[in-house]
Amino acid sequence: MKTGRNDPCPCGSGKKYKSCCLGREQQEASAAIPRLPGFGPGAWQAGFVTVPLPVTPEVSVLPSILLVVEGDRVLFGDVAPTPPAGPEEEAREIARAVREAERTAGYPPGRVLVRGPAVAAALARSGLEASAAEVLPGLDVAAEELPGAMAEMAALPPVVSPETWAGWGLPAAQVAELFRAAAAFYRAAPWEVFSDDEPMEAQLPGGRLWTACVLGGGGLECGLALYQDVDDYLGMLVADDPEDAIAGLGGRVLSLGFEARDALPPPMVREVRKAGWEVAGPAAYPHLTVLSLAGPGLAPEDLTDLVAVLRAVAGYAAYAASGADPEPGWVDESLVVLRRMQVSIPRVESLWVAPPVLWPACPEGPGADPAAALDASGSVDEFVAREEAVLGRFQEWLGRSGLSRTMTEKHALNAAAFVEFLVGGAGVPVRAVTEYDLRLFLYDWYPRKVQDGRTRALAVPTSLRRFFAFLAEEEGISCPWADPVLRDREAFETRYDEFPGGFWWDEEVQDWRAELYDDLEERVLIPEPLGGGEAGDTMGPAEAMLWGELQRRWLLWRDEVVRAGTGEPDAVRRELARRQREWERTPHPEHRGKSPLQVVRGRGPKKTKK
Description:
single chain; alpha+beta; about 10% strand
């Protein structure tokens, strides 16, 4: 019996077949494909293939699929209603498919390999570098896998997203109204206020109900999704595999997102320009997708509801962003009622899972200087002024991005809290910021120290994503580790919500902090106890200064070791512990010849007998 892609893997690993042995089998099959002349990096294979379905009384004509593949990766696939009539028509269809594949891949092919010199010649006349090949193994392998893939897709609801808005068959005036509502929604940036796991019940004046989910809080595509059945939203939220959730949909799902103009099909761009529909900016062209087991298409009343909810959510977000505390419910001028919903997501045992292989944790780029955290030269006032200037440039950068003044100020204030933590709390300049600093700020310092309302607090990761983007773009300070940390909104929200309140020495607070420090230790981001633990829990000024220096040296050493090729945590920890012991025994220039170990133990250097 054949194992399906979503079935348990026969090897007994407990994983699905597609994410276990099937992936290895596909890699082995790809490696076995002969590397013929012309099949090199950048070469794509394109053409029509016939799907090898079993011939039955219901299947009289085998379907043709137009495919574009790179190696074992399918970049484009589309069912051909009728076979192409000659090489010229085949070349036109392949050229169209290659352009679509370029959008998927993000880069053009170095060469396109097709069957037949006439097709290759016609493609060359269209501006593509093309060659004919008698054998196209990538297409053949993809064709062999098509029957199973088509059987899986048959169980999924139709996903409809026409190449033009006219494809929906709706009145142009109604589409124009949608564009106006979408532009207002985009300018309001509700994803800065509501996260994608904070749904709202939207009740329309006629009584129809939708579950509204604002997209974009997790850093992915921004927009709005409407679920006809609330269970569909909950299923999508907790599903390990989105395909499983889609296959079990009970109602319609309307998803409106935003794309850059260059990423849209050219016919849609021309259509929008000709109609003069309102767009919030070159990166804010709306596009609509509908998922429905009831069949394709978009009912006029669905579009009416979508427009009304877009406007209501934009109004609710503007109200919240003005500084007012968002109420549990909101009624807009068209009498759409929005009610915040409480969703309970099962918690895992630990908020974080430490990686099996470590990566660098210091900043990179021409503007970065990880060792600057050890430089105590210059006055405190100069140091503070220099770092505050970074915040000023950040606010100017935000202003150029087209955000409203309210949103610009909110992001600037949240970034200022982070810089205050770095500069005032740790004496670390922005150009030396590390993953350790970001995790300590998000999961310990901010929940304990900053007395903000929950709404502003939950916007902090979004603000810091913008701040780190600014650092990379304008300051030459790249922090690849920042984005994964800031996308983990659940961890930040949980830490914020679970802070027990009180002082750091309270037992409940100590237990709450311990979870973070256990994780930092697993990531090898904090040193061994100073002097083997002899400094104690409460350090004097000298011990505290030494501990701060050791923390910074530890992070620098960690990057050196990891970049040299050692990534296994225990191996990195052993090497760093060795360097720490050596540093602890070396005379320190700030302590008149005493080593850090002697400072901790309260002894001076040994005297040499004459």
